[in-house]
Amino acid sequence: MAATHSRYVADRGLTSRMVVTMFFIGLLYVVLVGVLVAALGNAWPLIVLVVGGLFVAQFWFSDRIAAFSMGAREVTPEQAPELHGAVDRLCALADVPKPKVAMAQSDVPNAFATGRSQRKSMVCATTGLMRRLEPEELEGVLSHELSHVAHRDVAVMTIASFLGVLAGIMTRVALWGGLSRAGRDDQSGAGIVLLLVPLVSAAVYIVSFLLTRLLSRYRELSADRAGALLTGRPSALASALTKVTGEMARIPTRDLRKAEPFNAFYFAPAFSGESVAALLSSHPPLERRLDQLSRISAQLGQQR
Questions:
Q1: Which annotated residues bind Zn(2+) (predicted)?
Q2: Going by C-beta distance under 8 Å and a sequence separation of 6 or more, which residues neighbour residue 139?
Q3: Which residues are annotated as part of the binding site for Zn(2+)?
């Protein structure tokens, strides 16, 4: 699924994982809709229409929703010459179309990319990241983000994440409204069906969550590798990773909590402390990412 003509190194492991993830996500989608149809009976046309409409809306507008939620604001070359200059150089090097360039007013040092295709993509850096990184480090981070667009894993993550969100909403709705109705309808057997809705929705959410986490961790390693090989400076990316991760500890907890829901899109995860969230992170451990970059640096050194 790497972009045509892109100089980013292709990753068959990432492609196969995206295909498998989408297969199981599609299967879970069918299961969830099937349970809703069985629970609500004659209302099935409305269910299919609503769920289908939400899916289409999520696919077409998810990039805008994500960008808006994370405070991204498109900037011109005059407003952010350093950022645009780095993106221009990387796009020329990778032979990919230039995405929209945006900045987010946040002290949390991070970057992300969104978009269902290269033509509709956006790369964004926070003001906190721009202030802390050297030019070579910034290019390493942006090369990492642009590889997500080139490999199209951003679109896959968007679709995969939607099912988990939908299942979570259905679980809450069923728990609030379904259980009380179940007590009144248990004589007809409808109560059992209504009880199954939150259970199945919760199971779908858990499986979807695990699938997206497994894909997300691998895609971050893939982006590190592709980004480092494109620039030929894995040490710059490693330096940026170390610096960004270290700076997270100095960011106010309130700001980190605001950023945590979007960790799957970020260059480095934002955590407000040692928690279960860190154990279920969307990113691989820092040590693993640095070890991979160290090995790439050694390989490039031998080739030279």
A1: 144, 148, 220
A2: 86, 89, 90, 231, 233, 236
A3: 144, 148, 220
Residue 177 lies in a domain: yes
- What's the confidence (pLDDT) of residue 1? 45
CA distance 163 to 32: 9
Number of domains in the chain: 1
In this structure, the strands spanning 122-126 and 100-104 are parallel
Residue ranges of the chain with per-residue pLDDT less than 50: 1-3, 179, 182, 275
145 has catalytic annotation: yes
197 part of a folded domain: yes
**Is residue 3, in this structure, part of any structural domain at all?**
no
Structural domain of residue 122, as residue ranges? Answer: 12-303
Tell me, what's the pLDDT at 261? 67
Which of 78, 145, 247, 287 is flagged as catalytic? 145
How high is the pLDDT of residue 184? Answer: 52
Do residues 101 and 84 touch, judged by C-beta distance below 8 A? yes
User: What are 198-220's pLDDT values in tens digits?
Assistant: 777 778 778 888 888 889 899 99
**CA atoms lying within 13 Å on the CB side of residue 289:** 28
Return the structure tokens found at 149.
């667009």
Can you give the pLDDT at residue 279? 53
Q: Is residue 34 part of a domain?
A: yes
